[in-house]
C-alpha cells in the first residue's frame, strides 16, 4: 500500500518536510511505501470555474495538475501538509485542493474511501484554521480521516524548531500509526 504526502512549503528541506518525514517514518516502519511530492516543483494554476470537469476526469488548464491527480488516484493514503501563510494553506495547495476536488466530485467522488488527513506547521497562529481548511477537502471528497492525540499542528519558526515541539511530534507519531492501522483495516475488508 502507498501513502503520498504533499509538501506545500516552498522550503523543500524546511519544517514541513521534517514533520512529514517524521510521520511517514511510522508508516515505513509498518511496511508502507511512502513518497513526498513538493508542490512548489509543479505548476498548478488556480481553478477557473469552467466546469469542463463535469464532462469527464480532465481539466483544460495545461499544467501539472492532472499528473498529480493521477498519483492521488493510485495512492491508498493522502497526506496534505502546509506551513501557515497569513493564516491559511499556501497557494499551490489551495489550487490542488480546489481543482482535484472539483474533478473528483464531478466524476463519482474518485477519492472516496481513501484515508489521510492534513498537517499544519506554524510559528504561532493559524494552525487550527489551516488544518480545518484542508480537512474540508477530505470531508467533501469522502476520505476517512484518522485521529491523533491532538490537532495535527506542529510549532516551529526557524528550520529545525519543530524538533523541539515534542507534543506536536507525538501527535504526528500517533497520526502516522493510526493512518497505517486504518489503511490496513480498510484493505482487509
Summarize the structure.
By secondary structure, the chain is α/β, with parallel strands linked by helices. The chain is built from 5 helices and 5 strands, in the order E-H-E-H-E-H-E-H-E-H.
Chart the SSEs and their pairings.
Blueprint: E1 2-7, H1 15-29, E2 33-38, H2 65-74, E3 77-83, H3 91-106, E4 115-122, H4 127-140, E5 153-155, H5 166-188
Parallel strand pairs: 1-2, 1-3, 3-4, 4-5
Helix pairs in contact: 1-5
Q: Please name the CATH architecture.
A: 3-Layer(aba) Sandwich
* Major sheet size, sense and barrel closure: 5 strands, parallel
What gap, in angstroms, lies between the N and C termini? 14 Å
CATH fourth-tier homologous superfamily: Flavodoxin domain
Integer average pLDDT:
97
How would you explain this protein's 3D organization?
With 189 residues, the protein is of the alpha/beta class. It has a single domain (2-182), classed as Flavodoxin domain (Rossmann fold, 3-Layer(aba) Sandwich). Helix content is 41%, strand content 16%. It has five helices and five strands. The protein has helices at residues 15-29, 65-74, 91-106, 127-140, 166-188; strands at residues 2-7, 33-38, 77-83, 115-122, 153-155. It has a five-stranded parallel beta sheet with strand order 2-1-3-4-5, sandwiched between helices. Helix 3 links the parallel strand 3 and strand 4 (115-122). Helix 1 (15-29) packs across helix 5 (166-188). The longest helix is centred in the last third of the chain and has 23 residues, at 166-188. The two termini are 14 Å apart. 41% of the residues are buried.
Amino acid at each position: 500500500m502507498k501513502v503520498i504526502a504533499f509538501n506545500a512549503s516552498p522550503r523543500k528541506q524546511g519544517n514541513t518536510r521534517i514533520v512529514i518525514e517524521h510521520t511517514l517514518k511510522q508508516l515505513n516502519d509498518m511496511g508502507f511505501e511512502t513518497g513526498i511530492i513538493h508542490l512548489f516543483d509543479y505548476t498548478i494554476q488556480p481553478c477557473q470555474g469552467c466546469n469542463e470537469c463535469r464532462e469527464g476526469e480532465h481539466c483544460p488548464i495545461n499544467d501539472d495538475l492532472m499528473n498529480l491527480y493521477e498519483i492521488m488516484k493510485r495512492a491508498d493514503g493522502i497526506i496534505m501538509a502546509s506551513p501557515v501563510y497569513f493564516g491559511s494553506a499556501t497557494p499551490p495547495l489551495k489550487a490542488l485542493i480546489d481543482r482535484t476536488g472539483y474533478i473528483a466530485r464531478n466524476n463519482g467522488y474518485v477519492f472516496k474511501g481513501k484515508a489521510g488527513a492534513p498537517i499544519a506547521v506554524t510559528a504561532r497562529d493559524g494552525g487550527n484554521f489551516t488544518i480545518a481548511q484542508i480537512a474540508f477537502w477530505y470531508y467533501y471528497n469522502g476520505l476517512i480521516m484518522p485521529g491523533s492525540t491532538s490537532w495535527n499542528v506542529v510549532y516551529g519558526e526557524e528550520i529545525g524548531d519543530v524538533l523541539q515541539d515534542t507534543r506536536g511530534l507525538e501527535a504526528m507519531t500517533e497520526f502516522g500509526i493510526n493512518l497505517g492501522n486504518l489503511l490496513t483495516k480498510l484493505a482487509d475488508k
